[in-house]
């Protein structure tokens, strides 16, 4: 026996997950094509890397070769860096001196600005002595560069095989206490296999005392070049803190300039400028203790011997951010179109009307998309590692896992939020792919340019990263740069110790955005799909008892003098049920109204005008009316698709305004248009909706079999075919079966027999007759025969209001008190026919005429059937009668009469 209780959260989640997995199975080839895209792009990157290695690295990225000999003599300038250097040259140690335009100018001309050194300590007089001993007083070159304090404003290179201070056009400075007019001299730089002259200019070393460590630090910071490189900033060559230095102890702290803020390349080789500063301080202290003859000569610095190397540039990592952005974002159109498809086809509404709660839908749908995304990203990352892409191999896998996991979660949240903005799959698809490819192109040609520009404000970078596509691109850029640097230097890529760079910033932004957008998407969903008030989280739901009193007070004020007596009796019956609160009505509508606001200057549309209806269990109520009478609007209000403008209704004692989620577990709906998944079979539809109705195991299987048999979809394997292959009538029968599975207490059927052949219609009627024994049915139809056979009571709607109500016999008796006489003759005898009819009844009314055929209404109280027969037999002797007939009033006649007179 079926469980009559509502399906639990786990049951609903299980039903939805099973349906999604079956749907995904139907799209297996689409999924395979989707997964091949990252494989294809990864292979494309690998091919690009291989072409670069063979066409560039093998020609320009190795030491030149001639006659099987590889060294500097057989190399171009591009190839020289890759040759073996067994005996690196010896270079004189240098200081890092600011360029003239950045030095402390004070009262000096710009061309002779001194190189300023700050100093502090516990003993100012000793500090002055030591700073005075820092520089050489030699004004002429004596052949030994180690005796001079030399410096340059050139930046040191990554290696020291070729010192930039000696091989560049930037001058070398000799730092002295005082510069004489002829203190410059020339030297010959001789480093095999080259020799070249170099001029050495004198620059004064200016020593400035500061009272404390903090004063020195602050002044150094203020003098640091920031922003515009042409801005006049006072830079200092170095600073010394002699601390507690005395005649028995040397304790010195050295400040040095390691890089400039506008320099985009980190220069660890700047440390090569530091040893000379330490040597200066040591020699100054020795001179203080032992005199000027005692020195520690610092003759040269020298790089380690170097074997022959080969250039290995990871081009795949350099262009990877663009391709990887595309790969990850390609999931976005898939998720978005799935959500919009359910919205466009109104499948989400259909699932909700059949009992699927918001929580199971959100959790299962989100988890479902998350699992697909994780599988997609795992295939992507594993394949990239297998084929040897450094982006995946060198960077820490745990960092990649965290970053990609946050990325796909943010992407799913954006898709859920974007789905609320679209109602058409084609439009959503186009916009989604513009987002995918536009983000990648803007990232590489715009955003990356700003990232690498040191003058671009950091605040604007963060603002741009608030756009999810750019935050994704930034993270991929950081990982790519780490992989590129790691491959170039022969070290690992990004590790957690490196997470303090832009990667941490962008990960935090994406994490916060994920949570905020997910909450926002859920909020919009509750307003749109569930029809809740925009401030629903602040409002408290009213109790059912309170709502009953509200309805009672409202109905007591309703006075409609123009209503028919049967309609007034129905309204009084509703008021009685509200007062008694008996709960024996399956459906109770109380003054239900729906007004659609006017658009484009049109007036408001009154779709339903104060409908009151009491429907007991076991009754089938038929709603008849012309198109646009308000029948579908009424069903939409009863099923929660739209909200009533005023009034309310109760289903099984539950208010549609406050308890719609509970009502969904007790009703079944056959909508006017078939809401089905094209990829699922009829059986799979019934299994899904059966589980939502809490059917399980053998009970579920039996219910599905019976449903398929009842609507003639069982034989020939029709029930196992995909719905996309069904005819219109087969889809309609399946919709009816869905509405009835699980034996709901109340069933709404909106024109269920539309498009059915006579045999299928007859079979469908038998199904509805059996179903109404278990609950109440509200049925709309344009078939008078269907209404007369199925409905216990009928209500005729015209222009949104109920014009009459009763069983078919009552309506025909009340509105059809006449016979219909039809007679066909030649046209020249039409006047004689009219005269014959008026002889039968003076109040006869002609209602139809065409080509000799005429119809007349004869009041029953004035006419006897025998008299009609006698009159017709007499007429046949007077003129030829082709055909004639006398009929009682049909329901169709009642419908036409009510519709025309209302």
Automatic annotation (TrEMBL):
It is found in: Membrane. Its main location: membrane. It comes from the Eukaryota. PROSITE patterns: ABC_TRANSPORTER_1, ABC_TRANSPORTER_2. GO terms for molecular function: ABC-type transporter activity; ATP binding; ATP hydrolysis activity; lipid transporter activity. Residues 587-824 form the ABC transporter domain. It is a multi-pass membrane protein. Pfam families: ABC2_membrane_3 (PF12698), ABC_tran (PF00005), ABCA12_C (PF24526). Keywords: ATP-binding, Membrane, Nucleotide-binding, Transmembrane, Transmembrane helix, Transport. The chain crosses the membrane at residues 34-52, 318-341, 362-391, 397-418, 430-451. SUPFAM superfamilies: P-loop containing nucleoside triphosphate hydrolases. GO terms for cellular component: membrane. Belongs to the ABC transporter superfamily. ABCA family. CPR flippase (TC 3.A.1.211) subfamily. This is ABC transporter domain-containing protein. It comes from Arabidopsis lyrata subsp. lyrata.
């Amino acid at each position: 026996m079926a469980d009559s209780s509502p399906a639990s959260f786990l049951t609903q989640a299980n039903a939805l997950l099973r349906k999604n997995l079956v749907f995904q199975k139907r799209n297996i080839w689409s999924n395979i094509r989707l997964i091949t895209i990252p494989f294809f792009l990864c292979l494309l990157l690998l091919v690009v890397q291989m072409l670069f290695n063979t066409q560039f690295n093998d020609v320009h990225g190795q030491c030149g070769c001639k006659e099987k000999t590889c060294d500097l003599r057989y190399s171009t300038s591009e190839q020289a860096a890759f040759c073996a250097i067994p005996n690196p040259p010896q270079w004189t140690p240098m200081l890092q001196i600011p360029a003239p335009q950045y030095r402390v100018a004070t009262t000096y001309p710009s061309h002779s600005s001194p190189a300023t050194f700050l100093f502090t300590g516990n003993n100012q007089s000793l500090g002055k002595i030591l700073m005075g001993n820092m520089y050489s007083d030699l004004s002429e070159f004596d052949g030994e560069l180690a005796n001079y304090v030399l410096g340059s404003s050139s930046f040191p290179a990554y290696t020291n095989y070729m010192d930039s201070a000696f091989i560049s056009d930037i001058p070398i400075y000799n730092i002295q206490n005082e510069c004489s007019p002829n203190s410059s001299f020339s030297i010959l730089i001789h480093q095999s296999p080259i020799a070249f002259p170099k001029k050495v200019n004198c620059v004064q070393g200016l020593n400035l005392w500061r009272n404390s460590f903090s004063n020195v630090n602050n002044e150094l910071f203020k003098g640091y070049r920031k922003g515009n490189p042409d801005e006049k900033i006072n830079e200092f060559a170095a600073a010394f803190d002699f601390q507690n230095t005395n005649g028995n102890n040397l304790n010195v702290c050295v400040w040095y300039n390691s890089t400039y803020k506008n320099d985009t390349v980190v220069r660890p080789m700047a440390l090569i400028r530091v040893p000379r500063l330490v040597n200066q301080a040591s020699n100054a202290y020795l001179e203080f203790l032992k005199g000027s003859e005692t020195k520690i000569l610092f003759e040269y610095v020298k790089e380690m011997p170097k074997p022959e190397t080969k250039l290995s540039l990871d081009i795949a990592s350099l262009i990877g951010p663009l391709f990887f952005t595309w790969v990850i974002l390609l999931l976005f159109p898939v998720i978005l179109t799935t959500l919009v498809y359910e919205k466009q086809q109104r499948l989400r509404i259909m699932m909700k009307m059949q009992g699927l709660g918001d929580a199971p839908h959100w959790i299962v749908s989100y988890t479902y998309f998350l699992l697909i995304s994780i599988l997609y990203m795992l295939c992507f990352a594993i394949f990239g590692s297998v084929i040897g892409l450094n982006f995946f191999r060198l960077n820490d896998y745990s960092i990649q896992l965290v970053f990609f996991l946050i990325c796909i979660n943010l992407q799913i949240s954006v898709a859920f939020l974007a789905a609320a903005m679209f109602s058409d799959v084609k439009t959503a698809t186009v916009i989604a792919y513009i987002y995918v490819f536009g983000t990648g192109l803007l990232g590489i040609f715009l955003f990356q340019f700003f990232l690498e520009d040191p003058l671009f404000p950091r605040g604007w970078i963060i603002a741009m990263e608030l756009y999810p596509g750019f935050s994704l691109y930034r993270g991929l850029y950081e990982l790519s740069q780490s992989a590129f640097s790691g491959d170039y230097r022969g070290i690992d890529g990004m590790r957690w110790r490196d997470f303090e760079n832009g990667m941490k910033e962008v990960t935090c932004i994406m994490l916060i955005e994920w949570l905020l957008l997910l909450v926002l998407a859920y909020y919009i969903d509750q307003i749109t799909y569930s029809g809740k008030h925009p401030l629903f989280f602040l409002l408290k739901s009213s109790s059912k008892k309170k709502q009953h009193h509200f309805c009672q007070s409202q109905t007591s004020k309703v006075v409609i003098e123009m209503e028919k007596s049967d309609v007034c009796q129905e309204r009084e019956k509703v008021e009685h049920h509200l007062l008694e609160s008996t709960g024996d009505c399956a459906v109770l509508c109380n003054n239900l109204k729906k007004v659609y606001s006017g658009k484009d200057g049109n007036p408001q549309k009154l779709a339903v005008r104060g409908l009151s209806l009491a429907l007991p269990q076991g009754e089938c109520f038929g709603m008849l009316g012309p198109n646009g009478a308000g029948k579908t609007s009424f069903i939409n209000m009863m099923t929660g698709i739209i909200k009533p403008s005023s009034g309310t209704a109760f289903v099984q004692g539950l208010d549609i305004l406050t308890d719609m989620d509970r009502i969904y577990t007790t009703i079944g709906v056959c909508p006017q248009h078939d809401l089905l998944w094209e990829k699922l079979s009829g059986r799979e539809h019934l299994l899904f909706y059966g589980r939502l109705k809490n059917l399980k195991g053998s009970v579920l299987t039996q219910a599905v079999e019976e449903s398929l048999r009842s609507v003639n979809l069982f034989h020939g394997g029709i029930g196992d075919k995909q719905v996309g292959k069904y005819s219109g009538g087969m889809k309609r029968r399946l919709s009816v079966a869905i509405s009835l599975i699980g034996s709901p207490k109340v069933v709404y059927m909106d024109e269920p027999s539309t498009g059915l052949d006579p045999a299928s219609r007859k079979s469908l009627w038998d199904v509805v007759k059996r179903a109404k024994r278990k609950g109440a049915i509200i049925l709309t139809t344009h078939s008078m025969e269907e209404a007369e056979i199925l409905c216990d009571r009928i209500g005729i709607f015209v222009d949104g209001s109920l014009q009459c109500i009763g069983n078919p016999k009552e309506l025909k008796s009340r509105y059809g008190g006449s016979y219909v006489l039809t007679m066909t003759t030649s046209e020249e005898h039409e006047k004689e026919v009219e005269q014959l009819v008026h002889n039968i009844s003076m109040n006869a009314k002609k209602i139809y005429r065409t080509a000799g055929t005429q119809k007349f209404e004869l009041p029953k109280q004035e006419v006897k059937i025998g008299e009609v027969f006698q009159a017709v037999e007499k007429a046949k002797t007077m003129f030829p009668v082709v055909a004639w007939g006398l009929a009682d009033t049909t329901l169709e006649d009642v419908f036409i009469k009510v519709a025309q007179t209302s």
